[in-house]
């Protein structure tokens, strides 16, 4: 379901020094992404464009300050060496809650605009979602589990280096253990997406009455219901392993890595300050 909502809100989440301009033009970028899924009529565009602008403005004025507040708290606790292991899971929970807030904000717009799609437009959406799923399925089939492991390890090391500036040998051992402890969810995640796509198609083909509204609301706000028990269990295991890894990296940082991390966070805070001020000044 995230693929579908990325059409509406995905690019609204852009922050950082290299993406401030992208964030300011996120409404235009979202419209471009939307055109990849469906060809809207001129009348539909005239009705949907203001909704995208509203979502963009809501995110800028309501959500960016939350991001800033969380980063400021995190920065202070890192600088004072006050983080404990449970904080890492709380950080992950905060990230998920921010995504939930976006879903709640999007849901009324989906209720209003999705029934406007014609049969031909709905088919365009189904075909695009199927195409994306096929591409992901091909990528899974093309790589053995060992190849996927290696690719994940490379990306993980790049991400950690971007935050810490470097990785020491002991920290690499933490990364290697994290990879070994994580369950391989690729096939289970594909199955989950297939279930969501089937539900979305069934909902959009029956858009009359309260039953439609209830089913669409549940699909948007609670897509987890379509996860298998195995996938849900895997997610719990992987999230716990991620929280442990984050704390181990935090505890193992030397002074140079800590300074690099604080500068990185300071950069994001400065970018958020600029964006918040921009949207306060542009009523």
TrEMBL record:
* Keywords from the named record: Coiled coil
The UniProt entry, under InterPro entries, shows:
UCP028200
Coiled-coil ranges per UniProt: 116-146
Reading the lineage from the top rank, the first entry is Bacteria
Entries under Pfam families matching the protein: DUF6279
Q: What is this protein called?
A: Lipoprotein
- Which source organism? Pseudidiomarina aestuarii
